[in-house]
Amino acid sequence: MGSGIARNLLRAGHQLTVYNRTREKAEALVAEGARVANSPAEAVRGAEAVHTMLSDDAAVREVVFGRDGFAATMGRDAVHISHSTISTALARELAAAGHGYLSATVFGRPEAAEAKKLVVVTAGPPDQVARFRPLLDAIGRQTVVAGTEPWQANAIKLCGNFMIASMLEAFGEAYALMRKAHIDPHAFLEAMNGLFASPVYANYGAMIADEKFEPAGFALKLGLKDMRLALAAAEECSAPMPMTSVVHDRFLSAAANGQGEMDWSSIARVAARGAGL
Amino acid sequence: MGSGIARNLLRAGHQLTVYNRTREKAEALVAEGARVANSPAEAVRGAEAVHTMLSDDAAVREVVFGRDGFAATMGRDAVHISHSTISTALARELAAAGHGYLSATVFGRPEAAEAKKLVVVTAGPPDQVARFRPLLDAIGRQTVVAGTEPWQANAIKLCGNFMIASMLEAFGEAYALMRKAHIDPHAFLEAMNGLFASPVYANYGAMIADEKFEPAGFALKLGLKDMRLALAAAEECSAPMPMTSVVHDRFLSAAANGQGEMDWSSIARVAARGAGL
Amino acid sequence: MGSGIARNLLRAGHQLTVYNRTREKAEALVAEGARVANSPAEAVRGAEAVHTMLSDDAAVREVVFGRDGFAATMGRDAVHISHSTISTALARELAAAGHGYLSATVFGRPEAAEAKKLVVVTAGPPDQVARFRPLLDAIGRQTVVAGTEPWQANAIKLCGNFMIASMLEAFGEAYALMRKAHIDPHAFLEAMNGLFASPVYANYGAMIADEKFEPAGFALKLGLKDMRLALAAAEECSAPMPMTSVVHDRFLSAAANGQGEMDWSSIARVAARGAGL
Amino acid sequence: MGSGIARNLLRAGHQLTVYNRTREKAEALVAEGARVANSPAEAVRGAEAVHTMLSDDAAVREVVFGRDGFAATMGRDAVHISHSTISTALARELAAAGHGYLSATVFGRPEAAEAKKLVVVTAGPPDQVARFRPLLDAIGRQTVVAGTEPWQANAIKLCGNFMIASMLEAFGEAYALMRKAHIDPHAFLEAMNGLFASPVYANYGAMIADEKFEPAGFALKLGLKDMRLALAAAEECSAPMPMTSVVHDRFLSAAANGQGEMDWSSIARVAARGAGL
Hints:
The structure is a homotetramer.
Chain A: H1 2-11, E1 17-18, H2 23-27, E2 35-36, H3 40-43, E3 49-52, H4 57-65, E4 79-82, H5 88-95, E5 100-107, H6 110-114, E6 118-123, H7 126-139, E7 140-147, H8 150-180, H9 185-196, H10 199-209, H11 220-236, H12 242-256, H13 268-274
Parallel strand pairs in A: 1-2, 3-4, 4-5, 6-7
Antiparallel strand pairs in A: 5-6
C-alpha cells in the first residue's frame, strides 16, 4: 500500500523521503524522485508531513516511539498523517503525543493505491485537515472527513472492514447452504451480482465460489486483528455489535485451523467445515 | 409486485387472466388487456401457465389448495410458476402436488417489477424451464437457473434476502457505534458508498442514517419470516448459519418492540437500543 | 423412559394397559401387572387417563391421530396426559382436539424414571390438574404446576433443556480453551464442582472431560430438535433468545459432522474443532 | 473479599500486615492481630508472602509497579500471591517481573471468604505451590492446582465466571419467554432447582425472578470486564468462544443502558428489553 501512496504523492509534485524496513522497497521509488532514509528518525527531518502506512499497532508504535522512531526528530510544526488500520486507542495516544496528528485511513487494495483510487477517511483538527487536504486528495479519488478527533477516522475504517467481513461471512454461510443443497454457488453469485451490482461482491463472491484463497490479497490474520479492534472500539463506546462478534469468532476459528496467512475471504471455510463439508 | 409482473407479461403479448383478493387491484390491469377472474379456481381455466405472487406460505396454500384454490381446475399440462418467497418445504410440496411446477423467485422492489428490472431465479425440470423461459425473461432483466429442483430457487431467494438483511444489521451496528462516537452516520455512509459502489448500500444506508422507516418498502415482519425460512432451509440441509441466527433474533426483537409494520431496515433500531440510544 | 413411568404407576396401585411399537418392551411390564394392547386405539379403551411418552411431534401425532391412533377410541371423560417433549404448537393442537388434555413433561434420565425421581412439570385446566395430580405424584419426586394452558408446561420443558444445553456448550468452550492452554479440563471441572455443587455439572462435566459420548444417554439429534422447538416457542412469544440460537447452531454443526446419534454432550466437539483441536 | 481472606490467615496463626486505600477497612483487622501499613511498599517489608486482592488489572498494576508499589520493597525470596481476577496477560507480566509469583484465584462471595468456604484455584512453579499451599488451604475449603504457569489459574477463574455468566443469560432468556408466555418465572425456577440442585442456580434464579438487582453482590461492570478478559484469553489461545461473545455483548448492552453498578444478574434485563418487556 505504501508505495502506491508514495508514488501518487510524488506524481502530485511533493518532495518525499521514504523509509521501509526492507530497503529495496524504498529504493524502488528513487527513480520516481524519492530520497531514501536509513531510519524513521532520519526520514522525517525537515518534513512538513510524515505519512505512515504500517500493518498494526505494534509496528506504528515502533516507528514512532521506538529506538529509531521519529517522535524525537519530527519538526515542531510537522504533522503525522497515519494511514494505518490501528486501534482507536493508539490513535488517541498518537494525537496526545506532542506533535500534530491526523488519522487518514484508506479503503482499497494495493492496485487501488497505485491507481489513486483509494477512499480516504480523515479526522482531526479542522485547520490541519484543511492544510493537508491536498495531500489526501493526491492519493485517492474521494476524501471523507469523519470529525475533529483523529480516532473517529479509525472507527470508520474498522467498521468499514467489518462491513466487508460480514459480507464475507454472509457469502460463506449462504454458499455452505448452496453446496449442501446441490446448488452451484456461482448461480447464487450471479443472482447477488444482479442484486447488489457491487464490484466488492463480484470480486469476493467469485473468490469464495472458486475457493481461491491464495495468494492473500489481505491476510486473514489482519482481518482478525481488525475485528478485535472494532470490538474494542465498540466497548469503548458502549455500543454492542453482536454480528461483529460472530465474524470475529469465525476469523479466530479460521486462524486456529491454519488459515491465518490465507486471504480473509477464506473465513468461508469455517461455515463449510461447520456444515461438514 | 404482482401487477408489475402482470403488466410485463401483457406487454410481451401474452393473454392474461388475473385474480386478486382486492378486486380493484386486478381491475387496474383491464385497460392493459387482462381479464379478471372471481377466484383462483376460475382464473386458471384454460391457462398454460399459472403465475402466483403472494406474501407467504399460508397465502399460497390457500390459493392453491383452499376452497376456491386452483389445484382442481388447472389443466393437465399447465404449469404453476411460483414467484412468492415461500419455504423450501412448501416448494417441495407444490412440486409433488400433481401438476407442473416451477419456482421463479424474484429480487427487486415493486418499481423494479414495473420496470422489468427484476432478477429472476428459477429452478425446475430443464424442459419446463426451457419452455417457460420466455415468460421469465419477459418480467426481469436477468434470469438465473438455480437447478433442477424447484425448491433450490427458493433457497437462493431466502439466502439472498439474508444477504440484504445482514447488510442492514451491519449498518445498524456500525451506525450505533458512530452515533456513540459522535460521528455523523452519513460520513460513514459516504465512505461505504465509495467502497461498495452498490445502489443497495446507497439506498438502505441512507434510509437508516435518516431513520426513515415508514412507509415500509418491505415490512419487517416479512423479513423476520424470511429469516425463519432461511434457517429452516439451513436446518434441512444441515448447514449452520450463525450470522443468520443473529439477524433473525434481531428482527424478532424489533417485532417484539412494535416494529413489525415498519421497513425491515428498522432492524437498526435494535442495535441503537442495545447501545442505550 | 416410558417403562419407568409405567412401573411407578403400577406400583402406586393403578390398572395399566400398555402399548409399544416394540412389543417386547410392553411385555416386560406384564409381570408387574400390566396388560398389553395391540394398538394405541385398543390400549385406551375404558381408560380414565391415557399417558404418552414418545420421542417427537411426529410420533405423538401418529399415536393420537394416525390410522391406529387413539383419538377415536378414547372415552368421553378420559384425559390424555402427554409426557413427551413436543412443540408448544402440538400441545395446543392436542388441547383443542376434543378430549381432555394435560401436558406433564418430565426432567430426568431413564434411571430417574425408574427410581420415581423425575421432576414433573404439568399445566392444564386446574380441575384436571387436581384430578390427576396423584398420577403425577406417583411418577416423580416433585410436581410443578406451570399454568392453566397445557403448552406452558412444554415451554418450561423446552427451556429447561436449553438450560442444560447451554451448560454443555459452556463446558465445551471452556474446555477448548483449557486444552489450548495446556490445562487439564479435569482441573477446571474440579473447580466447577466446588462452585456449582450440582450433580448435573458433575455428570456432564466429566463426560465431556473424558470425551465419552457413546452410548448416548440423550441423543444429540434430540437435543437439536429441542432447541429448534425452544426457538419456535420463542418466536411464537416474540421473545428473542440469542444464546439459544448459538446452542442450536452448534448442535446443527455437530449433526452435520456425524454426531447425531452420540450423546448431546458431544456438542463440545464443535468448540474443539473450532479451536483446531 | 480481602478482609475475609485476611481474617482466615490471622486465624490460621500467620502474622499479617495489611494495607487498603480506605484505611478504616485495614484497621478493622487490628483487633484480630493485623498490623496496618501506610502503603503497599511498606506493607510487604520483611514478608514471606504478599497477598493481593484487587478489582482489576489497573489496580494490581498500581499496587505492584506504581509510585508506592511494592515491586521495589519485596524481599528477594518473597512471593506475590495474587487472588485478583486479572487478565492472563498481566499474570504473565507479574510472573516475569523478577520475584516469585503465584496466581491463586478464588471463587465465592465475600460471605464465603469470611467463612473460609472459597474455592481456590492456583498455578505456578510446583515448589512454590507446595511451599505456600498451607496459606491457600487456610483461606478456602478446596484448593485446585491448575498447572505450572500462574496465568493458567487466571484462565480457569475467567472461564469459571463465564460459566456463571452464561447461566445468568440463560435464565434471562428463559424468563423472558416465561413472562411473554404468562408463566410465573418462579415455576420455571422450581423446576430448575429440582433439576440442577445447585445453590448457585437457586440463588441467582431467585434474584432474577424477583428482579432484585440492588445492592450488587458483584457489579455488572466487573462481569463485563471478566468476559472481556475471558475473550482475550480465548484469542491468545486461538480458542473461539461464541457463547462467551454473546454474554459479553449482553453485559455491554446492560452497561450502555445504565446497569453497570447493578448486580451482574441484571443481564437478564437485556433479554427482557429485547422481548419488549
